[in-house]
């Protein structure tokens, strides 16, 4: 079963909370190509929310290419979106790098030092020093 958490106190609508969490599970590889998602009704019951809200989340995921819904069979993680997922992950990396560059600039880190730090961190991760 999916581990989805919704909050009524969030400024994000519930359907967006659901779709963003499922999107993150797909992008991280926790949900894999062809994997079946709970039915709209099952997820609504589990989360104690409206079927309409869950349906809207699934429609958004389908529109964005993350899932495929088959009438009478259910919804499945899309298999044809590998390049799309890669682009989404690259956009996320760009966002994180933008934050890192801004932080480095505020700390007075020169561009060459930032490159050295990126190489160091990358090498440590590649060789298992950081997990």
From TrEMBL:
Keyword presence, Signal: no
GO molecular function: DNA binding; DNA-binding transcription factor activity
Gene3D superfamilies named in the record: Winged helix-like DNA-binding domain superfamily/Winged helix DNA-binding domain (1.10.10.10)
Ranges of residues in domain HTH gntR-type: 12-80
Coiled-coil residue spans: none
InterPro entries for the chain: Tscrpt_reg_HTH_GntR, WH-like_DNA-bd_sf, WH_DNA-bd_sf
CDD domains membership: WHTH_GntR (cd07377)
Keywords (A to Z) from UniProt: DNA-binding, Transcription, Transcription regulation
Keyword Glycosyltransferase: no
PROSITE patterns, A to Z: HTH_GNTR
SUPFAM superfamilies for this protein: Winged helix' DNA-binding domain
Superkingdom classification of source: Bacteria
UniProt name for this protein: GntR family transcriptional regulator
Organism listed in the record: Bifidobacterium magnum
